[in-house]
Amino acid sequence: MAQNVSMDEFEALLNESFEIDTPQEGSVVKGKVIAIEAGQAIIDVGYKMEGRVDVKEFANPGEAPEINVGDEVEVFLRSSENARGEAVISREMARREEAWDRLEKAYADEERVEGAIFGRVKGGFTVDLGGAVAFLPGSQVDVRPVRDAGPLMGLKQPFQILKMDRRRGNIVVSRRAILEESRAEQRAEVIGNLTEGQEVDGVVKNITEYGAFVDLGGVDGLLHVTDMAWRRVNHPSEILTIGETIKVQVIKINKDTHRISLGMKQLQEDPWDAVAAKYALDTTHTGRVTNITDYGAFVELEAGVEGLVHVSEMSWTKKNVHPGKIVSTSQEVEVMVLEIDESKRRVSLGLKQTQRNPWEVFAESHPEGTEVEGEVKNITEFGLFVGLEGDIDGMVHLSDLTWEGRGEDVIGDFRKGDMVNAKVTEVDVEKERISLSIKAMDGDPFQDAVGGVKRGTIVTVEVTKIEDGGIEVDYEGAKSFIRRSDLSRDRAEQRPERFGVGDKIDARVTNIDAKTRRLGLSIKAREIAEEKEAVEQFGSSDSGASLGDILGAALNKDDE
Predict the structure, then answer these.
(1) Pair 362, 394: CB distance under 8 Å
(2) CB 101 within 8 Å of CB 93
(3) Residue 140 CB coordination number (10 Å)
């Protein structure tokens, strides 16, 4: 009985020893390299089990394998025996299991892990984390987009694990997070050593439309285009190149956002310090047109000093044209200083002031009454505009087109481009107006006709038209109208129809209106005047003589 117990105990001990010495499949075991042949390492994993592993499984990405006879290594036991009676083992799977344990701990502790980029896949890259393969998205490679990742391949460097799932075998890492963290630390240190107003050296890192980013040794500062030079800079590339080392001044530091504003022009002398003394009011200077806008043109007087020639100060005669029609960019022009505002750093310039006012020149050479010839430039409802010397226009009002009739009736006879002769009647330099008269070229027929006529004069006129209200008559080419009430002293004779066209009659001048160019005539006034004169000469009605007697005596005297 005792012997049987001993045999049971022995069997139990034997089985226990088998369990202890025999490695468990699907686990990582330790082994010893006993030989290397045909690119494979032969490894003894215990209990008289040997397996083969490709030597390349002992190499890190981009490196040569390091494995020698006698080295102790860990391998993954996939199967205790294959068809050849050898154990099926894998160094790569062992490294992967070991790596996952290590990476899970690092992920939980939010620690960095070391790895090397070894391949490119869709959307990013593959990274070897010491046995486990992780995915590095393209957006997580660097703080800025990377066009060529060649220099990063195979290089051991730290990564941050963003996400991992052991069951699915997924690991996502970021290189950018490491760079941003390091950069933030470096920025904080650099910014802590900077002060506003400090002069530092920097390297131009990037150039944009609005300025340039300058590396100050781990931290970037923005050099805005307006702070590059006192003069106008259209694009930063005019004065900077990428990689160039420049001296800049720290203008402002934002401690919260870590943004740094830099300036180059602040290290140069401000040309505005001498502007008032150098560019006195009403003095003329030569400058270069740097920019043209809808409201004027900017002219550079010197580097850093620009003035605006407003569109209203560009030309005496071209009032409603774009400044680009008058000047062009880079053109050298002569300008006059009109105003300086040092507080706003503005200079108002004039282009037309460097030339004489064409209306003043015209007034000096063309006094009133001067005859001129010009082309009809425009026709409006109130008259004609005629082009004159000095690129200016004169206006012929409707009332100055003709002596006879209305201007509205004859303006249709004119066309643009017609050459006309006229006389200057007025020049208003202040209002920039020139008045012309076409009808004045022929003289005033009314003045010619009534030049020697005075009020009270008896004139002989010819009847030209019979109307209900009176008769129209002509005197030496001057038209007049005798109203019905002025046709006779006797009411019964105040009948227009008793006259005929072509009749010659005498009438008394009652009024001369040069403005309306009309003669006031009256037959009635003439008869009354004749009666009065006869009474004075031949006695009054009080003496007993009748009016007929008096007039008869006067007429007899006239016959004698």
Answers:
(1) no
(2) no
(3) 21
CA distance 334 to 285: 6
Per-residue pLDDT tens over the stretch 145-190? 777 888 888 888 999 999 988 888 899 999 988 888 877 777 777 7
| Structure confidence by residue, pLDDT tens digits, 24-48 | 665 667 777 778 887 777 777 776 7
What is the reported pTM? 0.46
Q: Per the CATH hierarchy, to which homologous superfamily does domain 271-350 belong?
A: Nucleic acid-binding proteins (2.40.50.140)
DSSP letter string, 109-166: TT--EEEEEEEEETTEEEEESSS-EEEEEGGGS-SS--S--GGGBT-EEEEEEEEEET
For the cut 90, the answer to whether the pLDDT of residue 289 exceeds it is yes
* CATH fold group of domain 445-537: OB fold (Dihydrolipoamide Acetyltransferase, E2P) (2.40.50)
User: CA 66 to CA 131: how far, in whole Å?
Assistant: 15
CA dihedral sign, ordered 369, 372, 376, 377: negative
- If phi > 0 it is left, if psi is from -120 to 50 it is alpha, else beta; for residue 187 that is alpha
The token pair that represents 350 in the structure block? 């004039």
- Whether 223 and 266 have beta carbons less than 8 Å apart is answered as no
Give how far Cα 42 sits from Cα of 66, 90, 97, 230, 398, Å.
14, 11, 21, 77, 120
Q: Does the 110-180 domain belong in CATH 2.40.50.140?
A: yes
Q: What is the C-alpha to C-alpha distance for residues 503 and 482, in angstroms, rounded to an integer? A: 14
Query: Does the pLDDT value for residue 297 go beyond 90?
Result: yes
